[in-house]
Amino acid sequence: MTTSIIIPTFNGLPLLKACVEAIRHYTTEPYEIIVVDNASTDGTDRYCRQKEIFFVSLPENRGFPEACNAGLKLAAGDELLLLNNDVIVSQGWLTNLRAALYSAEDIGIVGPVTNYASGRQQVEQRYGDLIGFHLEARLANRPDPAKWQEVRRLVGLCLLFRREVLERVGLLDERFSPGHYEDDDYCYRARLLGYRLLIAGDCLVHHEGSASFKAVYPAELQALVSRNRRKFIDKWQVDPVQFI
User: pLDDT digit string (tens) for 45-57?
Assistant: First the structure.
């Protein structure tokens, strides 16, 4: 089985390089990487060609949901994994995520724990650099189903789901562009169809945290979050804050 790893990016070449290098170093399962470039001007296209990474160049920055959807439409994998470009993975990461995903037939989406996220996926860490992260992950990523927990939402920084989920739930809702709450929306739609969500507590990844949004929308980030929360409420008549 192959996992399609879809990485949206915008003018984040140093982050993308670190993300891809970690995937290539620490992933033992068959996978493909699809980089979706939101009209970067920093040489992202040249880097992808040099490293023989399959990539899609969008004509303008269309935001996270639309970039993810472009990658999902091209993905050939049995599983789909949406990954932020500011995430660094470590040993055993995909093995443990897949173990959680296939632990029961009704598990639809799984995600890791990390140093930076909203809700239950954020765990306290003591490392101060990436060397320290990988040392920490060596212990944290020992397979341990006792560390899995069922939740009502997962953060979109790293989402692994079955192709069956994509076929039934569909693509991300682009009304949430340029981003925020499209992941809450996707998880909610999956749960409405009977799928369960799991945090794989035995998969620790490092997350820089909203790097793209801070770069592109530094003064508008909070307004964007508030606006998209209202869109979620208008769509479902439910406040997503209750799922955190």
Answer: 999 999 999 999 9
Cα angle 193-92-157, degrees, rounded to a multiple of 5 = 50
How far, in Å, CA of 142 to CA of 145, rounded? 10
Strands (E), 30-185: 31-37, 54-57, 79-83, 87-88, 107-114, 148-151, 158-162
CA 187 – CA 60 distance, rounded (Å): 27
**Relative orientation angle of helices 63-74 and 182-192, to the nearest 10 degrees:** 50
Whether the model pTM is above 0.85 = yes
Which residues lie closer than 8 Å to 201 by C-beta, 6 or more apart? 113, 123, 144, 147, 148, 149
- Closest of 73, 5, 9, 4 to residue 36, by C-alpha: 9
The one-letter code for the residue type at 128 is G
